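User: Teach me something about this protein's shape.
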Amino acid sequence: MTQHFVSILFAIRSYFTWLPASVVSVLMLVVVGVLAFYCGNLVTKQLLRIPGSRKAALIRRIVSSLRRPTRLMVALLAMLFSLPAATGFTAAQEDNFQLFLLFLLILTFGFSAIMVFRIMTEVYLNRLASREQTDDIMIRSHQTQIRVLRRLTEILVGIVTVASALMLFPSVKQYGLSLFASAGAASLIVGLSARGLLTNLIAGVQIALTQPIRMEDLIIINGDWCWVEEINATYVVLRVWDWRRHIVPISYFLENQFENWTHNSAAIIGVVFLWVDYQAPMDKIREMLNEIVRGCPLWDGRVFDVQVADCDAHVMSIRIIASARTALQSWDLRCDIREKIIARIRDECPEALPRSRFSMMPPGPGGQEPWEQMAPPIGRPPPGSYMGPGMGSASMSSD
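Assistant: First, the predicted structure itself:
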């Protein structure tokens, strides 16, 4: 088939013998490349019209993303097959042009392979995300493994593609061989300079296998609540509740301690502390809290309890625990409990509100309180006594 194609090109070339051979060769290669480019465009358009099923939709998405690389690869292949008919070039020029076309073809093929792998993983991740189970550990585990391994695969395919393309040129090939063969200072310098990158790449593989963190895990780092938004090959993007982002090296999660609130499950128990007076009716407060928690849709129905946890000279502390499906729902549940129980205590049993008590004078002799010492006698004053304004009681006697 290739010989038949070349013979057709020779037949067409015979009509342009009146032009210089080099000009005819260049024009022939350009025309062949352009025609092949538009033929590839027609083929991709036909593939995009495939109707129907899920597999057909996947093929359409791949073809749509690879339209430009595919057309470029078809044009490069057509120009490579046309080189034997380009007799206007010298042998050295033909070899150099062939190496250049192969170089572009390898780079385009590697880029296309990365795009296909990325599209297939995205389709699988979207299928996982479309499931109704929002707290599925297996789903988040698969997402983490696929995202990390996809980054590493893209880096590996990119390195292999560039290395394969550069190895076509003899000068670069000899330089690479001499560099790999040297085991002295050059290799030591390269190793030290790539230590951080290699550390994070190896840490990324360990994260994908052991999974101390997963996608959308809730972790506590530097005192902030953060959700794992992205796990890349060398770093992790953490989304804070106020929309800030922490960019953390991936090796941090293997070398430092941190809290993961959703490692086994997203469900969590929230704690609310309430300070009340000693005269607070605990039975009534328990009933009110029971009504509030059981009537709240954020409570998952698993854990609820009310206990007097502590006390001091003035108030006692009530500890309320209630479970929720996620940490965000637990936060909203605790806020709802605080708001409603404070309002009900204020309206139904205000004697339970905290208050301060103090005495201005110490007890007198015999254990009497200050107001008992200073209180005037009950009833009429004794005969002969006089109560002057602003004065205490005084007794006047006469002979």
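Now, about its shape. Residues 179-188, 371-399 have pLDDT under 50 and may be disordered. Residues 91-129 form the longest helix (39 residues). If you'd like, I can walk through any region in more detail.
User: That's plenty for now, thanks!
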